[in-house]
Design a protein that fits this description.
It contains 6 helices and 17 strands. By secondary structure, the chain is α+β, with helices and mostly antiparallel strands. The strands form 3 sheets. Strands 6-7-8-11-9-10 form a 6-stranded mixed β-sheet. A 6-stranded mixed β-sheet has the order 12-13-14-17-15-16, covered by helices on one side. Strands 1-2-5-3-4 form a 5-stranded mixed β-sheet. Strand 1 and strand 2 form a beta hairpin. The longest helix is centred in the N-terminal third of the chain and has 19 residues.
């Protein structure tokens, strides 16, 4: 008799895939002829949860998005975290400069991200971090990102603005740089902007005049917006400068048929700036609202018409840099009132549906303005005489 031995049957079990996190991710990518790539990522939770949970979702979604884009560690240059509630654990897998800004996202999100990455043919750039400063060296240039500069003990919003600009200028001088020649973009965040913006404006105007930035020379592309929680600093600044940039690379944008120079109503910033490199031109559009060539607010109380005019103004500025909305790679949208959300999103989808966007609640610098937009555009360039980006 033949005995048959039974064998245990082993069933191969598959490890279940982790459930996707409820985070919407939008990405843009520009790759120039040099092979240097710029990527902008916007991440927004799409389900309600406490801020600690949403922050964990964002960490995971960001890690997965970087993997999908082939972004290695060390390629992250600038991260802005926009929040209504700040998590107690702020750790995040990012090596670059990080700016935390109190600007409530639209529900159900409590915290959202804008991340900027730079990838070279050699991989991650050799970044250097020192305090609030991040240096990204390139063959002929060094890109300098600065995040979260404050001076809370200096006094009121004007005194704090002066102290911030003093510290920033001193930092530039240690590298042989100046405010007029090398700084391309600033962001000023203000607590209770309706009350405290005037102090910032006056202090910045005086500081700029003392450093050779006037209506007869030029100012700096900028956004001034509410963005700080009550009880902390009155003013915070982020900035971007480039060491080695040449005057012939920089062109300031004005669109005089649509907007007046800002100094006509007492403020001191450029409407936008374009910077040409060997294989690309970058365009930084400052915070732009519904304003006319006389400096007057248009369509008071009508967010739909204000947004239409805002987009017309931005289109005119982009056109001066030989770009249009098809070249836009990211945008930040600031709403004064949450009830205007649906109207704004409908129009933005029609005009900028392809663009990574964050919409947050942040009063603009004049109470009559209901919406403001800033953006970045990039187009190809071909000029061997210019430095490589």
């Amino acid at each position: 008799m033949t005995m048959m031995m039974s064998r245990p049957i082993h069933k191969r079990q598959r490890t279940p895939e982790p459930a996707p996190v409820p985070v919407a991710v939008s990405t843009s990518r520009f790759a120039g002829a040099s092979g240097v790539e710029e990527l902008h990522l916007m991440l927004r939770p799409t389900a309600d949860a406490d801020v600690a949970t949403q922050w964990a979702w964002l960490r995971r979604a960001y890690t997965e998005a970087c993997a999908a884009q082939g972004l290695a560690a060390g390629t992250g240059v600038f991260l802005r975290v926009l929040y209504s509630e700040r998590p107690s654990d702020t750790a995040f897998p990012f090596d670059g400069a990080v700016s935390w800004v109190y600007q409530p996202p639209l529900p159900p999100a409590r915290i959202v991200l804008w991340a900027y990455h730079l990838r070279t043919p050699e991989g991650a750039p050799a970044m250097r971090r020192e305090g609030a400063w991040l240096a990204v060296p390139r063959p002929e240039l060094t890109h300098l990102w600065t995040a979260g500069l404050t001076a809370p003990d200096a006094g009121d919003s004007g005194a704090q603005t002066t102290a911030i600009l003093d510290a920033y200028t001193a930092g530039l001088e240690t590298m042989g740089l100046t405010l007029p020649e090398h700084v391309l973009r600033t962001w000023f965040f203000v607590e209770h902007i309706d009350e405290k913006y005037a102090g910032l404006v006056a202090a910045r105007r005086d500081f700029f005049t003392a450093h050779g930035l006037t209506a007869d020379t030029h100012y700096i592309a900028s956004t001034g917006i509410e963005g700080l929680p009550t009880g902390g600093p009155a003013v915070m600044m982020d900035a971007y400068a480039v060491a080695g940039v040449r005057p012939e690379q920089i062109h300031y944008l004005s669109a005089p048929d649509y907007l007046c120079p800002t100094h006509h109503y007492g403020v001191t910033f450029e409407r936008g700036v374009s910077v040409a490199y060997r294989d690309r031109t970058q365009v930084y559009i400052s915070g732009t609202a519904s304003i006319d060539r006389e400096g007057q607010i248009l369509h008071v109380g009508d967010v739909r018409q204000q947004l239409t005019r805002t987009l017309e103004n931005i289109a005119a500025l982009l056109a001066q840099a030989d770009t249009d909305f098809n070249h836009v790679v990211m945008a930040l949208v600031y709403l004064r009132h949450p009830e205007d959300r649906a109207v704004a999103q409908e129009q933005l989808q029609a005009c900028l549906g392809h663009v990574p966007i964050q919409v947050v609640l942040a009063p603009v610098c004049r109470p009559g303005w209901l919406i403001e937009i800033e953006c970045i555009a990039i187009r190809p360039n071909d000029d061997a005489a210019l430095p490589e980006f």
